[in-house]
Request: fold
Amino acid sequence: MRAAVVIDYQNVHLSGHGQFCPAGVAKHESLVHPLHFANQVLLARKNAMTARGSDPGDVALGLVDTYRGLPTNKEQPDHYRRSQAQKSEWTRDRRVSVTYRPLKYYWEDGQRVAREKGVDVLVALAVVRLVQAADYDLVILAAHDSDLEPALEQAVDAEPVKDGRVKLETAGWRNCKRLKANGSTLWHTFLQGDGFVNSRDRKAY
Reply:
């Protein structure tokens, strides 16, 4: 069984940081490596299913489809440089895909702030596209953003999921929001503190 893991990167990164990092640890010092994270998801999935007496199957990771906001070189040149270096590092493994969407900048209370716009749409489209293409036997959405639930609802109703050719699941950190779809009970893989530690990207950028 081949698996594709779709990651809403900022959502996963910031949720993990808030859940598991001690106070004072900077967000850029707790980066999540997409490949490490996906491997931890599959490991936690296997352990949880085995503990419940279910057969997790023989799962091979085929794709880590990652979506993230990109700082602009004009507004945040250092952040831009680091983001490009991170993408270069992460995609050294051919299974990892990183898609960036430029951040939007606004003035707020006299300060320049950056916001992600459109990343959740790209994540939603990716989940539906992967399910409909049926190139992978298992598609796992890693996110805690309820804005993505309509995409799960669309994917649940897709023919490859209905006829059993594709399994659709979700994953994320323990004690963070679990996404649902049309009242369907999708298998959800919970990652705990050890999963966060083992997902970390410890390279200095």
About this structure: The mean pLDDT is 94. The chain is about 40% helix and 25% strand. Residues 34-51 form the longest helix (18 residues).
